[in-house]
Structures are given as C-alpha cells and as structure tokens.
Sequence to fold (197 residues):
Amino acid sequence: MQIILALLIGGAFGMVLDRVGATNPSVLGRMLALRSLGLMKAILLAIGVASVLTFGGQMLGLVDVGHMSVKATYAGVFVGGLLLGAGWAMSGYCPGTGVCAAASGRRDAIVYALGGLLGALAYTLSHDAIKATGLLANLAGGKVTLGKVPGTNYESLFPALPGDVLGISLGAVFIVVAFVIPEQIAPKDRVGVHAPF
Fold:
C-alpha cells in the first residue's frame, strides 16, 4: 500500500510540476535569468506552505517527528550544490524536473536523466577516493539543526531557539516573499535582441 501511495503522490507531484512549467527548460532558463519569476514564486510558496504545515503539525502532535531526517553537513554538499546549479543552468533541468520531463517524452530530458544515472554511477565508483579528500567529513557536528526540535536527538546550533517555531517562521517568510516578489525583475527583452531562452 505504501508503494502505491508513493506512486500516486509522486505522479500527482509530477503532474503539478508539468502544469506550472517546471518541465520546460525555457521556463526554467527564464527563471534563472530572473526574467520570469512565476515558477520561482510557485517554488517559494510550496516550500513555505510545506514548512508551516510540517512544523505546525509537529507542534500539534499531528506529524511524528520520528519521520524527520536531518542530513549531515559537510563540504561536499557545497561542492555538489555548485555542480547541481551549473548543470541546472546548462541543461534547464534539476533532477526532479528532468525525470518529470523525461516521463512526458522530452528526448533532451531522457538524455539528461541518463546522464544523471551515469553521474551517480561515477560517484558511487569513486566514493572512497572522494571520501579520502575530506569532502565528506562532518562540519558543525554533522547532523545539526538551527533550533532544537522537541522529540529529536539532533544537536542544534541555537538550543534555546525552538525549532518548530523557527520552521513555521521561515515558512511564513517564504510565503510572504512568494507574494511580494514581482513576476519580472529584469527588463523585458528589447525588440530585435534575441535572448538565449
């Protein structure tokens, strides 16, 4: 039943990604170039609502904090983030949107997804060599949160700060920003000047 539920939720999420234009590299390119921020607004709103519901649900006892998983912080995360951002800018896809676009039949996305699988294989094969560089050594205690989340054993950078309240507050900030930022920041293209996206 859990697998069926995961497939249904994943399919619904993919449908929403496609509906808001996240599977179109031109839309993603315009967002990254700050020429059309509709998709960014949708992403910020989704993160904000999810944060408010998750941490609010934890405070009300509706969400089991045992399901919360904090990933370790290490230098490799920053290097990987830079590589992800560069790949996103060059291809017009991030891993989630690339898989959704491939499922919709886009040939470039199928190539992108295959490239991602090859990259994952290369990382797996070179994991020991990468680990030897120290890029995977924990920073700031490894699995650490900003504020203390009740019912968890994770260390926090600011133990006096309630993690649930911080999560709700940051979620509210994301929601406000999603409504405040304009659809466009950069000026529209001038007539006769062709943009790359």
In short: Residues 190-197 have pLDDT under 50 and may be disordered. Helices lie at 2-19, 25-32, 38-59, 75-91, 95-103, 107-125, 127-132, 163-180.
